[in-house]
Every structure is written in C-alpha cells, then in structure tokens.
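Re: the request from the purification team.
They wanted to know what the chain is likely to look like in 3D before they choose a buffer screen. I agreed to run a prediction and write the result into the notebook, where they can find it.
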Amino acid sequence: MSWLYLASVVGAGFCMGLVDHRWRLFLFRWPRRALVVLAIGFVFFLVWDLVAIQLEVYGRGESPAMTGIEVARELPLEELFFIAFLCYVTGVLHGLFTRVLDREGAAR
C-alpha cells in the first residue's frame, strides 16, 4: 500500500489553490458559484466513472503508487480526489482564460 499517487493529487490541488488564491481566478473569486460548479462537475464525472465501470469499459488499474482502497467496485479512493482536482483545474483555467481575453479585449 502506497499513498504516493493520492498525495501527489492532493499536493497538486493545494498548489492550484495557491494559484487561485493569489490571482482570484475561481474559488476565491466566486466562492458560491465555484462550489456549485465543482459539485456538479464532481457528480457528473463520478456517475460517468460508475457507468463506465458497470459497462466494463474500464476498471481499476494496478499501480504500486496507489493505496489499494476501493470506495466501490473498481473505483479507487484516488479517483475521487482526481475528479475533484480535474474539476478545480478546469475552473481555474477558465478563470485565467477569461481574465486574459477580457484584458486583450479592453486593450483593443
């Protein structure tokens, strides 16, 4: 059992949170809206994973860097954190691109 992958995802999420906090791109700019968007995205991708697992499109892979803990059949604990991270990164990138495009539009 290893916590390396889970720690990496959590660490990357923390770093993304620092970027978001510094430049107020998503969660630190619109907290309520961001939490709703994160929740919707999380549920969407969790259902997506569960359906794909049920259809046997994919399953849990084996890696020495993973904990081996499953929250459901073929659904590793790390996947929940990865889904949250994926949604958060998407929101932060959207905030960044929106800010850049708004500045370019104002400069013209």
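For the purification team: The two ends are 55 Å apart (CA to CA).
Please add any questions underneath this entry.
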